[in-house]
Amino acid sequence: MGENTGSDTGITYIRGDATSPHGKGRKLIAHVCNDLGGWGKGFVLAVSKRWPQPETEYRRWHKERATNGFGLGALQVVRVERYIWVANMIGQHGIRPGSKGPPIRYDALDTALAKLALEARDLGATVHMPRIGCGLAGGSWDRVEPLITQRLTDADITVCVYDYADPT
């Protein structure tokens, strides 16, 4: 597995699977979800393959959204193992590109990342993620990476970004 630390960003880039985070200690696996309650394509499939709880809790969160703050910029943290949590971040409006461009909402992602930083600090956890917001959400890493740097690594939170490498 190759590791590369972005000297400007403080982010460590790893070829591997973000659902199998590297290192010791407590880990938060962060990813972007949509605001429609849809869970069925992209990185969420890898999450669900390992743990059913994040999908179950996300769907419940969406179903009960009238009373629980579900919406763009929201964060839900679900414990999946003794030292691993999954952070469902609502940073995508809808699931298809429209008149306002791709589904990614950078302002919502920024808000969710600020909440993620607080959670990581409270848990004493490192943060692990794929290139969030840049798959089905249609975002640009050139816009996402500075948000991660500002909200997480500049706050001395260790971040590892995984570029998927199929083990087969």
Description:
This protein is α/β, with parallel strands linked by helices and 168 residues long. 29% of the residues lie in helices and 24% in strands. It has 4 helices and 7 strands; from the N terminus they run βββααββαβαβ. The protein has helices at residues 43-50, 53-63, 106-123, 141-151; strands at 3-5, 12-15, 27-34, 75-81, 84-92, 126-129, 159-163. A hairpin with a 2-residue loop joins strand 4 (75-81) and strand 5 (84-92). The chain is globular, with a radius of gyration of 15 Å.
Which terms summarize this structure?
alpha/beta; 4 helices; 168 residues; Leucine Aminopeptidase, subunit E, domain 1; globular; 7 strands; seven-stranded mixed β-sheet
Topology readout:
Layout lengths: L2 E3 L6 E4 L11 E8 L8 H8 L2 H11 L11 E7 L2 E9 L13 H18 L2 E4 L11 H11 L7 E5 L5
Parallel strand pairs: 2-7, 3-5, 3-6, 6-7
Antiparallel strand pairs: 1-2, 4-5
Helix pairs in contact: 3-4
CATH top level?
Alpha Beta
Shape: globular
Helix and strand succession? Answer: EEEHHEEHEHE
Mean pLDDT: 93
Number of strands: 7
Category from helices, strands and their pairing: alpha/beta
**Corresponding CATH architecture:** 3-Layer(aba) Sandwich
Helix content: 25-40%
Number of domains: 1
Number of helices: 4
Question: Looking at this structure, what is the CATH superfamily?
Answer: Leucine Aminopeptidase, subunit E, domain 1
What is Rg?
15 Å
Question: Could you please say which CATH topology applies here?
Answer: Leucine Aminopeptidase, subunit E, domain 1
